[in-house]
Write the structure tokens for this entry.
Amino acid sequence: SSDLFQRAGYDTIASAVSGLMHITGPEDGEPVRPGVAMTDLATGLYAHGAIMAGILQRYKTGKGLHIDCNLLSSQVSCLTHIASNFLNAKAEAKRWGTAHGSIVPYQAFKTKDGYIVVGAGNDQQFVTICKRLNLNELSKDSKYKTNTLRVEH
């Protein structure tokens, strides 16, 4: 039994304890707190859903319900895909910076006057991005024909 429920909750603490900060930040850098209070936001959204369900239950049955939500449970629930990767494939999560572990390209690239963020969620989008960036030779290179191949390289 824990008395944590009696203590104040803080987004940054729940982000750290849940593992969110473990997977956020530069690949070889320190853990980073997200730029917005993601844990607070997620908890608010879950609370909203619970309140709406409670209102619906009261309308249908005349009875209310008790709602219990907390920052840590909310943030852990947002990381179920990370947990699935570990439980199913023993793949420990890591920091990717702006990149993605299974979609390439899906990240920010430095340019001479700032950054460009590129996201190709499928092979056709990759071809389109290459055309728009005048990098047609990349889309024709056999090493980059499929997302699976792009992830390998």
Notes: The mean pLDDT is 94. The chain has seven helices and two strands. Helices lie at 11-18, 38-61, 71-78, 80-89, 123-132, 136-140, 147-152.
